[in-house]
Amino acid sequence: MKISGKIKKILDTQTFSSGFRKRELVILTDDLYPQHLLIEFLQEKIYLLNGLKINDYIKISINIRGREWINSEGIRKYFNYIQGWQIEKIKSKVPISSMPTYSSNVIYDDLPF
């Protein structure tokens, strides 16, 4: 699965006592209804964020992960994560708000058929 859009934020690398490392970024999708999505990059994939800047347009190959957790009261909870594994820089997109709109009241008198 792939997600494309503009980078809104790049967070610092987090290193945990176990040696596990992760780095996250926030992307604003270029959908009709744009979404702010937090995408995490783990271990050796954190280096994919090197050289990227805020407002760069990118396409990210992702995996969606989920896990189950039971808290101390025995309540079962579920969590979802978006993990990136490949990034491709793309050229700037035209914002949807600046795209031309078309009226449904078009007159077709000058069409040849």
Task: Give a written overview of the molecule.
This is DUF3127 domain-containing protein. It comes from Candidatus Uzinura diaspidicola str. ASNER. The protein has about 110 residues and is mostly beta strands. It has one domain (about 1-90): Nucleic acid-binding proteins (OB fold (Dihydrolipoamide Acetyltransferase, E2P)), CATH 2.40.50. Helices cover about 0% and strands about 50% of the residues. It is built from no helices and six strands. Strands 1, 2, 3, 4, 5 and 6 form a six-stranded antiparallel beta sheet that branches. Strand 2 (about 15) and strand 3 form a beta hairpin. It is globular.
Number of discrete domains: 1
How is the CATH topology named? OB fold (Dihydrolipoamide Acetyltransferase, E2P)
What's the shape?
globular
The named CATH superfamily: Nucleic acid-binding proteins
In N-to-C order, the SSE pattern is: EEEEEE
Please indicate the percent range of residues in DSSP E strands (runs of 2 or more).
over 45%
CATH architecture: Beta Barrel
Q: How many helices does DSSP assign?
A: 0
What is the straight-line distance between the termini?
A: 43 Å
Protein name: DUF3127 domain-containing protein
Quick recap of the structure?
By secondary structure, the protein is mostly beta strands. Helices cover 0% and strands 49% of the residues.
What's the arrangement of secondary structure elements?
Blueprint: E1 2-10, E2 14-15, E3 21-29, E4 36-42, E5 57-70, E6 76-89
Antiparallel strand pairs: 1-3, 1-5, 2-3, 3-4, 5-6
Labels describing this entry:
6 strands; six-stranded antiparallel sheet; DUF3127 domain-containing protein; mainly beta; 113 residues; OB fold (Dihydrolipoamide Acetyltransferase, E2P)
